[in-house]
Each structure stands twice: as C-alpha cells, then as structure tokens.
Design the sequence.
C-alpha cells in the first residue's frame, strides 16, 4: 500500500469513528507506571500504561502489541477472552503509530518476556501516517533531520545519542554548580556584534525600529555580570554565526561559556581538563574510547605552542610579521594558498587563523592544549606580562575540532578600547568577522572589572565525540536544513 493510500484508509477510519461519536484524540490518560518500569514488576501486578504502537502481531483471536516511549518498550496482549465483543472493534480501530492507554495485569510469556494482559484498551491519539519501516528505519539523510521524531522512534543509536546529550548537559551543570558557579541568562538579541570574530545574523526589531544581531557569543554580558559581583558564572545557550556549514560547523549551535573572577588562563586550563575527564568518564566509563575508528585518550593532553607550530610551518616567526601583504606573498610564493583563497583576507589574524585551520589543525587528533597566541588574534584576551606580543590563551583541540577556547580576560579599559579600534579598522578594510566597538561594555570596564578568565566550549562537538556521532547534525535535535519538505507542505 502506498503512503498516500494508507493515509486515506486511516483518515476514513477516523471519519467513521467521528460519525459514531467515538473519541479519537483523548484529553488525558492516568498512567501509573512507565513502560520500562513495568518490565521489572512481578507477575500479577495490575498496571495502567500507555505509549505508541510500534509493532502488531495478529493471531486471530489474540494479538501481541509493542508499545514505545523514549525510555523503552513493553509488550501487551489483547484477546477476545479478556475484551469480549470489543476485541474485533479494537483490532479494526488500531494502527501502528497510534497512541493507546491500557489497563491489565503483568505476566511472563513462554519466551520469558514481561507482558501486560489487557482488560481495557483506550485509543488516545490516532496516527494518520505510518511510521518508518520496522527493520530499516529512516535512512534518507534529509528525512532524518527534517522528521527527527521518526528517526528517534526507529533508530536506537539516534535515540541513545539524544538521551546521552541530556545526561551530558546535566553532568556539566552539576559539575560547575558544585564548584561554585551560578547559571545566568544573557540576551540573544544584541545591538553590537561582539564577543567573537564571526559574521553575524541581522534581524530587525519593529518596536524599536532598529536592527539587531543574533548573538555570536554571550561573553560581554557575562563579564558585566562578573563586574556586578557574580564571581563565577556560566551560561549554556544558542549562538548564531552566519558562516559555512559542514560536519563540524553549524550556524546555530549550543555553547557553554563560564567566567571566574581572580582566575587566570592556567587555572582555567587545569579546571577544564578535569571537567572534560569527568564528563568523559561519567559518559563513556573510560578515558580511552573509540570515535569513528580513532582511539581517543583523554587521560592526557599534549601541550603545543601555537606560535611555534605556525612559525615552524612558515619558516618565519609570526610575531615578526607586521604587513599583511608580506604574509600573503610568502604563502603564494610557496604555493601554500592561491590568490583566490587569500583575496578576501585583509587582517593578520584572519590569515594566520587560515594557516592554522587548514594546514595544522586537521592533523591534531588526540586531546591537545594549544597555548600562546599572537596578541592580534583575540582583542578581548589579556597580553602576557613578559611579552605583550603573546596572549595568555589556549585552545583545546580534539579530532581536529576546536572544542574550547580560553584566555585570561583583558580588563584594562584603555587597552580594550585600543583593541576594539583596531578591529574597527579591520572591518573597514573588509574583514567581515571583525568585532564592533561596544561602548556599554567599555563603560562597565571603566567602572572596574576584577581579574578573570573565561572559557567557551562547543556542546554539539562535545556530544558528538562522546556519542560516536560523525556529524553535529546527528546530535542536534532539530538542526537547520534546506527544508524542501516543509516548503512543499506550505504550497
């Protein structure tokens, strides 16, 4: 039967029920135990359970039905002996995908499966469309993300990945809270694009008649909270960056950022390593685990100087560079990048970042701390006291992904204004990812901010690693896609 014809058959069933004034979409159902819990009960126990039908085996006057919810499945049985004349009526009414509630007693079948023998069956919600085919599930990549509910119902690996995501976020929150951090919320709509080097999304606020940006980072607001006296703060939330999409990048993504007053980047480094070991250990059960055929080892972190690594690659000390065109000439003369690849890059930070991302980072697989960055890379970071050309900063790289970025924060308002002004010049010269100057943030800094260190970590990447998922789309419940199916429905 085609999907369209099955839809019509089910719709006709619904119409017949409505003509007979039978309820096809119930208001509620009084459940006294979940499906997975009912499996642990002793035989003879009376229960009231509910769920979605995912399989139906008919033996004439007797049938086995499998019910599903997010935490498990449970077999129920219906028979003419228990249900009498209602048995045939119930059989005709039900389809795979329907939600039903049942009452009955628990027993164990000859094959050893806990089952509920039903003496009452109630249709709770009629499904007009079938679920994915039982044995093959959902395989089309676009259907998987556009109709995630079908993927989760039919695919145990997908279901477990999202349940793991919930547990990882719970563990992350608990770890931070147990270490004195408080969770705050900061605005998604912001009138300045700042906090990271990224191209923003722009939207319009009708009431204020002003353009706003979807936030690229919560950094500046969290620092204001630290200035207010919240010494340890964090936020888990969505950020938006209008850039490319691939298996390790989404334009809408979830990050955690935390800030601790009186910490430096070294203190934060130790804290973040222990946090990651905790999350890996509680999620995987071992600090060594397989990710897509690669054995990752979180029991140790290599430490590598960013400046040394990029300088060795170029055979030039990148701290000596002052002219962007000089760097471009070296890259082109050595056939490292083409004219086209370098054409839109107008700042030193964007060029050095390109070298690292394209020529060095892809080969960093094991958990690695990249430390010491040129001062022009991050305008919000604190320069080193001994060598102001170097930032007190590190990144955590795993599987060639930037998992986290951290630095000692710049809290000198005079120096911060200078750095913002440099960013504005870069923006005027064509760097679309350069930050804007935020006067309200500078005002807060002029009132005084304590020494502090902050870290941002990509939740989607972390979850992908810990659930052995090849793409970030596999661990985001409803990722943005070019949704042709929805567009078709709207026509």
Sequence:
């Amino acid at each position: 039967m085609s999907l369209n014809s099955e839809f019509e058959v089910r719709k006709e069933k619904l119409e017949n029920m409505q003509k007979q004034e039978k309820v096809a979409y119930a208001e509620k159902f009084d459940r006294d135990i979940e499906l997975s819990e009912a499996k642990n009960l002793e035989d003879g126990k009376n229960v009231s359970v509910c769920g979605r039908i995912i399989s139906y085996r008919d033996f004439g006057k007797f049938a086995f039905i499998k019910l599903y919810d997010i935490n498990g499945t449970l077999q129920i049985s219906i028979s003419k002996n228990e249900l009498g004349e209602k048995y045939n009526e119930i059989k005709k009414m039900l389809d795979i995908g329907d939600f039903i509630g049942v009452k009955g007693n628990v027993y164990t079948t000859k094959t050893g499966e806990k089952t509920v023998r039903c003496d009452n069956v109630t249709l709770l919600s009629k499904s007009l469309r079938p679920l994915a085919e039982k044995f093959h599930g959902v395989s089309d990549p676009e259907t998987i993300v556009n109709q995630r509910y079908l993927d989760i119902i039919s695919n145990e690996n997908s279901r477990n990945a999202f349940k793991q995501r919930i547990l990882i976020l719970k563990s992350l929150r608990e770890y931070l809270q147990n270490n004195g951090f408080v969770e705050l919320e900061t605005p998604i709509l912001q009138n300045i694009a700042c906090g990271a080097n990224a191209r923003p999304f722009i939207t319009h606020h009708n009431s204020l008649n002003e353009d706003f940006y979807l936030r690229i980072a919560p950094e500046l607001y969290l620092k204001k909270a630290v200035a207010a006296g919240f010494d340890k703060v964090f936020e888990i939330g969505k950020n938006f960056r209008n850039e490319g999409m691939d298996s390790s990048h989404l334009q809408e993504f979830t990050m955690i950022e935390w800030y601790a007053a009186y910490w430096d980047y070294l203190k934060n480094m130790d804290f973040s390593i222990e946090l990651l070991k905790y999350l890996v250990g509680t999620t995987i059960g071992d600090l060594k685990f397989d990710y897509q055929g690669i054995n990752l080892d979180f029991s140790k972190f290599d430490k590598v100087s960013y400046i040394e690594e990029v300088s060795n690659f170029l055979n030039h000390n990148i701290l000596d560079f002052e002219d962007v065109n000089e760097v471009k000439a070296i890259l082109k003369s050595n056939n490292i990048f083409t004219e086209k690849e370098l054409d839109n890059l107008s700042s030193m930070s964007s060029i050095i970042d390109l070298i690292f991302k394209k020529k060095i980072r892809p080969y960093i697989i094991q958990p690695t701390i990249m430390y010491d960055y040129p001062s022009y890379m991050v305008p919000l970071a604190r320069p080193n006291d001994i060598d102001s050309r170097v930032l007190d900063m590190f990144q955590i790289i795993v599987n060639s992904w930037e998992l986290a970025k951290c630095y000692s924060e710049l809290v000198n308002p005079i120096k911060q204004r200078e750095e913002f002004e440099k960013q504005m010049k870069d923006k005027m010269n064509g760097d679309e990812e350069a930050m804007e100057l935020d006067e309200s943030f500078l005002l807060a800094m002029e009132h005084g901010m304590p020494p502090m260190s902050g870290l941002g970590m990509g939740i989607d990447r972390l979850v992908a690693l810990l659930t052995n998922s090849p793409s970030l789309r596999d661990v985001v419940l409803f990722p943005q896609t070019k949704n042709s199916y929805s567009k078709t429905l709207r026509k």
The chain has a mean pLDDT of 94.
